[in-house]
Fold this sequence. Notes:
The complex is a heterodimer of chains A (231) and B (309).
Chain A: H1 2-7, H2 12-26, H3 29-45, H4 51-74, H5 82-102, E1 107-108, H6 114-136, H7 151-163, E2 165-166, H8 172-191, H9 198-221
Antiparallel strand pairs in A: 1-2
Chain B: H1 10-20, E1 38-40, E2 47-49, H2 65-80, E3 85-87, H3 95-103, E4 113-118, H4 123-137, E5 142-147, H5 153-166, E6 169-175, H6 182-191, E7 196-200, H7 212-218, E8 222-226, H8 233-238, H9 255-264, E9 271-272, H10 279-287, H11 296-308
Parallel strand pairs in B: 3-4, 4-5, 5-6, 6-7, 7-8, 8-9
Antiparallel strand pairs in B: 1-2
Amino acid sequence: MATLSRMLPFSADVFFRLFEQYNAAIWPAQVAAYGLGLLLVALALKQRPGGSRIVAGGLAVFWLWTGIVYHMAFFAKINFMAWAFGALFSCQGLLFLWSGAFRGRLRFRFTRTLHGWVGLAFAVFAMAGYPLAGWLAGHGWPRTPVFGVAPCPTTIFTLGMLLLAEPRAPIGPMLIPALWSLVGGAAALLLAIPEDLALPFAAATGLVLALAKNRRAALAATPGSGGPRQA
Amino acid sequence: MRRFTDHPSRRAFLASMGAAGVAVGLGPAHAAAEDVLKKPIPASGERLPVIGMGSWITFNVGDDMELRAARCEVLQAFFDRGGAVIDSSPMYGSSEEVIGHCLKRIANKQALFAATKVWTPFKALGIRQMKASEKLWGVKRFDLMQIHNLLDWEAHMETLVEWKAKGRIRYIGVTTSHGERHEEMAKVMATQPIDFVQLTYNLLDREAESRLLPLAAERRLAVIANRPFRRGELFALFARKPLPEWAREFDCANWAQFFLKFIVSHPAVTCAIPATTRVDHMHENMGAAQGRLPDPDTRKRMVRYVEGL
């Protein structure tokens, strides 16, 4: 924490004023992000041909936008680490694009299970609870980081969507969101941003649920373990 | 708690302050800028006001024109109160750019002593970064170029020695902070052709008293004290407590001056570089550069007082 403190060269006030500038500059991209987010959740809830590729493509758009436009074009003005963050976010975007949208390796489907409900709750929190918490904490619109175009709510949304992935939760695509959750969570403590404290909680819960889900899936696939019988 | 380890007698203290050329006035805390306390840079005898200005966090406001205008007012107050040393670094986000922006817009800045740092690995990248800093500040040359946190110092030292010989910079310095890397710092201080060191020194962080400050005095190096308020922590700890009555004996009107006068009254310290975003705080800080400074016995008393709170 002390090390991160030394790496944060800006104040909370400057941070939120940057968001004010950013939100004004990219308007109405936020509206498009919400529209796309609702579509992705709908596609996970109700299956459509090619729906999972669209979900992965949508997540890729969020991460690439946040990496290139937010981190590199805006955040870099006040933080020398923003270029590295932008590169990480871009890698995550390219991963979704390649693995999910092009190769179809990611399948998103809501199931009435614990990980399904938690995943859905994360997505809803990122879109509705997060801005509400920000407003209650005194930095509502236009100073709020917005889902789809800002890193923290986008990360929570992504962790939620990855919990909806079937048959297993993909651990690889959760790593960069989990890493950002540590960075964002520590910054939340230092800058007193209560809504971002949800980040480490979402990452820890998401990873635990994903590992548990994958363990169950592995056990179910093992002959004699009580899983599906082979003909 | 760490103990105060520097024990010169009052007479020795006064002698050292006299030798250091400190102008110890008896005027009020808000005396004119001309009455500002100054100490000489040992390498040249050039005199610097004992209170400078840091820019970590405070001047990193990006493109926000409203905040930039507010910082220009802070900088104007700094120069109006007799300030000179401004310290920054490429690590501080947009701080260098904002300082350059403000310097173009304010008056009465002829006393500027421009100090920044090189903060990158590799000699070639360092040269590029220092040239970029000149453009950002809008200065033809820096008065002081420091190697930030000793990062790749061997490579940058070659450049700095060459630049100083050519007159492209006036002084060479090395920095550390948070009380770290004192061993390596001592090695550089003992062996390299530097003029300045920058280190962390304040009422609670006094580790430098045991080795680096005596070494700086021995090697005739100017000392810039960073983190004078421990990034505001000293105010959080003590500002609600009463300022002792005896603080008036050394023309101290508030806690900021209490913290700063402690630092700059050390014989080896040339100046402290508090950072602020507020004009009223700048006036308080600059008030520490006027009037009397605490003597060695009072310095010990100051330590005892804050440790007892």
